[in-house]
Write a structure and sequence with these properties.
2 domains, Rossmann fold, globular, 7-stranded parallel sheet, alpha/beta, binds adenosine monophosphate
């Protein structure tokens, strides 16, 4: 199937071509015709499936005709990074149409946003909190909104945005098209979907679509050896884009520093950074000047760096859904990726839950040549005594399961 089948506005068709998109992804094939028909859509798809273009293309098509200079499409997303990414997609796919998109989120000055909101854009991509501020102050006039997209609805729910979303919904025109995208559909979200969608069409891509292009592996390791193991792995990985996840902001910073000390270009992406610093971190990772980005879940939600070849979970996730979200950062679209997870003995329960969710067991690996018996630094280099259980120590055969990866294209 080709994009021609959708009969999109010729300028959008040209932008698609220059962007190198030739074949719609499964979520695009299913969703685009329905959105073009004006139907409400419940899209069950995670990032990496092409869901942004699945709503951006038909919205751009719709806005190609009709009035300009008022906000006609509103996209609500959980994080600033995702909002910027969505705006970039609208800019790229709408090149030449004259349709303008603006972002609205907290942590930066209101002024520029106010200017954009006063007659300078047709699309607003917003995070809930700041959008409500603009609504309350009368800078955002919802009366012209024809299409609403709630993107990564499950993440917004997890982040406690549900009341804000309800407040936003209450101010939007009742006659509108609503599209709700979410990777998972917990019960509480089902209620919201029921409230805001009218006779929706459900489109769903297999949750594992992005995951099938990813090779998963577990690296059993004791807690104090996680950093040495990470550094040893990074030495072996011939890649320019590795995303490492940690459980806390503090850890993300500390580990990024260690990785840097070891000679890699590395930085952290976490909530303690100013918005400017977060943007810088992400931009340098995207541009390839930073090769190892160490991030927390919240900061990295939805980020799309298409060349990421490896995701390393320095700390395991708290839920299987979060695992799927994290590794959705690699293996995007048609690319392949590797997802490595460091596991300590305490993590066994979560591993079983994740394996159940994936419907398969994940390979356990050991890193050849790595000293799994090294004692914590505080014991001054003493080695563990014989008989001490060292999870994940290489077996007698010393066989390496390591698969060296070619440089990503
Ligand atoms: P998303 O799920 O929207 O975050 O998109 C994931 C990645 O797939 C992004 O890097 C897009 O640029 C890319 N992408 C989206 N649609 C297509 C397509 N039809 N062909 C190739 N790449 C695509």
């Amino acid at each position: 199937m080709s994009f021609d089948a959708f009969h999109l506005h010729p300028t959008i068709g040209a932008a698609l071509k220059s962007h190198g998109y030739t074949t719609p992804t499964p979520i695009q094939t299913q969703a685009i015709p329905k959105v073009l028909e004006g139907r409400d859509v419940l899209g069950l798809a995670q990032t990496g499936t092409g869901k942004t273009a699945a709503f951006a293309l038909p919205i751009l098509h719709r806005l190609s005709s009709g009035p300009r200079g008022l906000v006609r499409a509103l996209i609500v997303a959980p994080t600033r990074e995702l909002a910027e990414q969505i705006k970039d997609s609208f800019d790229d796919l709408g090149r030449g149409t004259g349709i303008r998109a603006a972002t609205v989120y907290g942590g930066v000055s209101m002024h520029q946003q106010i200017q954009a909101l006063h007659g300078r854009c047709e699309i607003v991509v917003a995070c809930p909190g700041r959008l409500i501020d603009h609504m309350q102050q009368g800078h955002f006039k919802p009366a012209g909104v024809e299409v609403l997209v709630l993107d990564e609805a499950d993440q917004m729910f997890d982040m406690g945005f549900l009341p804000s979303i309800r407040a936003i919904l209450a101010r939007l025109p009742k006659m509108r098209q609503t599209l709700l995208f979410s990777a998972t559909m917990p019960d509480a979200l089902r209620g919201l979907a029921h409230e805001c969608l009218t006779n929706p069409v459900t489109v769903q891509v297999n949750h594992d679509v992005a995951l099938t292009t990813v090779t998963h592996a577990l690296y059993p390791v004791v807690e104090h050896l996680k950093t040495p193991l990470l550094l040893a792995l990074l030495k072996k990985i011939d890649s320019e884009s590795v995303l490492v996840f940690t459980r806390t902001k503090h850890r993300a910073k500390r580990i990024a520093d260690k990785v840097k000390e070891a000679g890699h270009s590395s930085t952290s992406l976490q909530g303690n950074l100013s918005q400017n610093k977060r943007k810088q971190a992400l931009d340098s990772f995207r541009a390839g000047t930073v090769h190892v980005l160490v991030a927390t879940d919240i900061a990295a939600r939805g980020i799309d760096v298409s060349q990421i070849s490896h995701v390393i979970n320095y700390d395991i996730t708290d839920t299987p859904e979060a695992y799927v979200h994290r590794i959705g950062r690699t293996g995007r679209a048609a690319k392949t990726g590797d997802a490595y997870t460091f596991v300590t003995e305490q993590d066994n329960g979560m591993i079983r839950t994740i394996e159940r969710k994936l419907g398969k067991s994940i390979e356990r690996r050991t890193l050849e040549g790595f000293d799994y018996r090294k004692a914590p630094a505080s014991t001054h280099g003493q080695h563990h005594t014989a008989g001490h259980r060292v999870p994940g120590a290489p077996g007698k055969s010393g066989r390496s399961f390591w698969r060296k990866r070619r440089r990503p294209r």
